[in-house]
Design brief:
- The protein is an alpha/beta fold and about 110 residues long.
- The protein has one domain (about 10-45, about 60-105): Rhodanese-like domain (Oxidized Rhodanese, domain 1, 3-Layer(aba) Sandwich).
- It is about 30% helix and about 15% strand.
- The protein has four helices and five strands.
- A five-stranded parallel β-sheet has the order 1-5-4-2-3.
- Helix 2 links the parallel strand 2 (about 25-30) and strand 3.
- The longest helix is centred in the last third of the chain and has 11 residues, at about 75-85.
- This is Rhodanese.
- Pfam families: Rhodanese.
- It comes from Bradyrhizobium jicamae.
- InterPro entries: Rhodanese-like_dom (IPR001763), Rhodanese-like_dom_sf (IPR036873).
Length: about 110
C-alpha cells in the first residue's frame, strides 16, 4: 500500500548542518518521557504513539526531518505523514543514538 512512498536517510551531520542553516525542521517522534531524559537541541516533539500529522508545526519553507531513538519510529512517522498527503520524506538514520555517536549535542529536561 505504501509502495509509492519512500523515506530518505540523512546522516546526523547532514541534519545538524541543515538545522544550523535553517533548512530542516527536526520533528522528534519519541515519547515525552524519553524526551525528558535526553532531547535534540532544536527538535519539536510530536509523539508517534498519538501521531497526528496535523500536529506537525508549519515548517515555513523548511524540510521536515523525523527523528527518534534508533531510526525505526522516524520511518513510520514519515510514511504516516506521506499517507496523509504531506511531502515529508526524510528521517535521521540512527536516531539519537547515531546523533550522539557523531559527537553532536543533546539537552536534558525536554
Amino acid at each position: 500500500m505504501l509502495a509509492d512512498h519512500q523515506v530518505h536517510d540523512l546522516t546526523p551531520e547532514d541534519v545538524s548542518s541543515g538545522i544550523a542553516e535553517g533548512r530542516y525542521l527536526l520533528v522528534d517522534v519519541r515519547e515525552p518521557n524519553e524526551v525528558a531524559v535526553e532531547a535534540y537541541p532544536d527538535g519539536v516533539v510530536v509523539p508517534l504513539q498519538s501521531f497526528d500529522p496535523a500536529a506537525i508545526p508549519d515548517p515555513k519553507g523548511k524540510q521536515v526531518v523525523f527523528a527518534c531513538r534508533s531510526g525505526k519510529r522516524s520511518v513510520t512517522a514519515s510514511l504516516a505523514a506521506q499517507a496523509a498527503g504531506l511531502p515529508y520524506d526524510k528521517h535521521l538514520a540512527g536516531g539519537i543514538i547515531g546523533w550522539k555517536a557523531a559527537g553532536l549535542p543533546t539537552k536534558t529536561g525536554g
